[in-house]
Amino acid sequence: MALNVVILAAGQGKRMHSDLPKVLHPLAGKPLLGHVLDTARELGAEKICVVYGHGGEQVRSALNAPDIAWALQEPQLGTGHAVLQATPTAVPSAPTLVLYGDVPLIRATTLRRLIEAAGAGSLALLTAHLDDPQGYGRIVRVAGKVTRIVEEKDADDAERAIREINTGILVAPTAALARWLPTLGNRNAQGEYYLTDIVALAVAEGVPVVTAQPDEVWEIEGVNSKLQLAALERVHQRNVAGQLMEAGVTLSDPARIDVRGQLSCGRDVAIDVNCVFEGRVELADKVVVGANCVLKNCRIGSGTRIAPFCHIEDAAVGADSIIGPYARLRPGTELGRDVHIGNFVEIKNSTIADHSKANHLAYVGDATIGSRVNLGAGTITCNYDGANKFRTVIEDDVFIGSDTQLVAPVTVGRGATLGAGTTLTRDAPPDQLTVSRAKQVSVAGWKRAVKQKKG
Ligand code: UD1
Ligand code: MG
Questions:
Q1: 52 lines ligand 1 (CB under 6 A)
Q2: Which among 337, 391, 340, 393 is positioned nearest to 369, based on CA atoms?
Q3: Residue 131 neighbours by CB distance under 10 Å
Q4: Domains of the chain, earliest start first
Q5: CA dist 293 to 21, 192, 257, 310, 342, Å?
Q6: Ligand 1: does its nearest atom lie under 6 Å from the Cβ of 56?
Q7: Which of 107, 229, 298, 405 is the most buried if burial means most Cβ atoms within 10 Å?
């Protein structure tokens, strides 16, 4: 069904005490408004109109997309005035759904129910019954039928006692909306053009006013402060953790995982506490992630174990490998099968083929490393001369002794061995020992200096 979606995002967000516009504050790594846009897309909205505020160019450039129409609301004279800015872009024959850019966790299932309740010609309000309705507009009913909405600031004591509240989210017949909005007045406690006043107009015209409720109360909660932002972040993370466990992932503690993007897991994946997943992360079957790891945009092959305290970004790790503890895989790292990367090893823009190992204290940058290679402790690729980067090539079955520097561009031939402490500045031939090291000498009869006695 065709649908117009209007997202109100012009509010200032004073209580965030931030230079960043409120709707750009991230929840699970994505701007609040981004969550709402994605939900609108899930509903199959053809046209989404975002009402943005003065100084909101930042909002526009952060989230612009071909399916969004932007309507500037300046000055901000209330929610009714805000929706009015969006009516020119709406398709009159399709209903209009009004969402809020700072209510990020509203779900498509709830909205579909609201859209269904509205049908072709009704005004449908998403309402909720709250124990503490303070701050919200109240739904006034007479003989069970909604007659109007009264804002907290305009309400009398009896109205304030009503526990059914207006979430602000509604579906309206678009042609009627375009007719009602220009007629709104602003003679109320806040001097604003209230969108909520369309309810009384609908009733007066005999347009049916119906209501629907969200599945969960957190769906309708808005973000006005960092406290509320953090509370909704926890709700979201709890939901994601729940989905992962439903799908068979073992989480040591569902309260101690943060997914800021898309995490997809195979069978029998286990994740220990305090791990953060960002962007798109794929963990294949039987992957184990140790405590305190940060994984961003990466693929981890089946059976691989990531030990605690690893940082992996824009990288791919093959199957049956062991990474960490304390390993850092930087962008452009591609590891084959059964690769071992140990503590304090940093790898960047490099490929390492099957069965190779770098178990301790190494820097591998801009390198192509073959199979069954052993990189000793303290191996460093000197890839940068201060101006340009160069590649190091290490062929299959090479053994690199400890504390070796490979000054790129340089190639170590298949089967070669580099002696410990070598500074390699020219290619090392295959199958030979190459060593650059001052000859060891021992001085017979040498005496260590002794401290002279004073006076
Ligand atoms: C509004 C409703 C109230 C409801 C509550 C739910 C009205 C008059 N009242 O009140 O019944 O219970 O939401 O949270 O609609 N905005 C604009 N431009 C404006 C004014 C607001 O874009 O000129 C946006 C804000 O950024 C915000 C949303 O609209 O996202 C709601 O505005 P806000 O001022 O928070 O409305 P409330 O007074 O809370
Ligand atoms: Mg207000």
A1: no
A2: 393
A3: 6
A4: 4-220 (3.90.550.10), 226-434 (2.160.10.10)
A5: 31, 49, 10, 5, 14
A6: no
A7: 298
Residue 47, pLDDT above cutoff 90: no
Residue-level pLDDT at 46: 79
Atom 17 of ligand 1, nearest CA residue: 10
Q: Where does the pLDDT of residue 72 fall: very low under 50, low under 70, confident under 90, or very high at 90 and above?
A: very high
Residue found by looking up tokens 């046209």 in the block = 47
pLDDT in tens, 200-246: 999 999 999 999 999 999 999 999 999 999 999 999 999 999 999 99
The atom number, within ligand 1, closest to the CA of 100 reads 30
CA–chain centroid gap for 140, Å, is: 40
Q: Is the CB of 102 under 6 A from ligand 1?
A: yes
Catalytic status, residue 311: no
Query: What is the DSSP pairing of strand 367-369 with strand 351-352?
Result: parallel
Q: Is 81 in the pocket of ligand 1 (CB under 6 A)?
A: yes
Backbone angles phi and psi of 197, in degrees to 5: -70, -15
Is residue 56 very low, low, confident or very high in pLDDT (cuts 50, 70, 90)? confident
Residue 206 CA, ligand 1 centroid: distance in Å: 26
The ligand whose atoms approach the alpha carbon of 196 most closely is: 1
Q: How far is the CA of 423 from the centre of ligand 1 (A)?
A: 67
Give the angle 256-257-260 at the CA atoms, nearest 5°: 145
Dist. CA 204 → ligand 1 center (Å): 23
pTM assigned to the model: 0.94
- Compute the distance from residue 86 Cα to the ligand 1 centre, in Å: 15
pLDDT at 112: 98
Q: Measuring from atom 3 of ligand 1, which residue has the nearest CA? A: 137
Q: Residue 85 contacts by C-beta under 8 Å, 6 or more apart in sequence? A: 51, 71, 72, 73
Task: Give the residue, by CA position, lying nearest to ligand 1 atom 1.
Answer: 168
Tell me the two tokens of residue 266: 């195979």
Protein residue closest via CA to atom 2 of ligand 1: 168
Distance CA 335, CA 324 (A): 13
Interval 157-165 mean pLDDT: 98
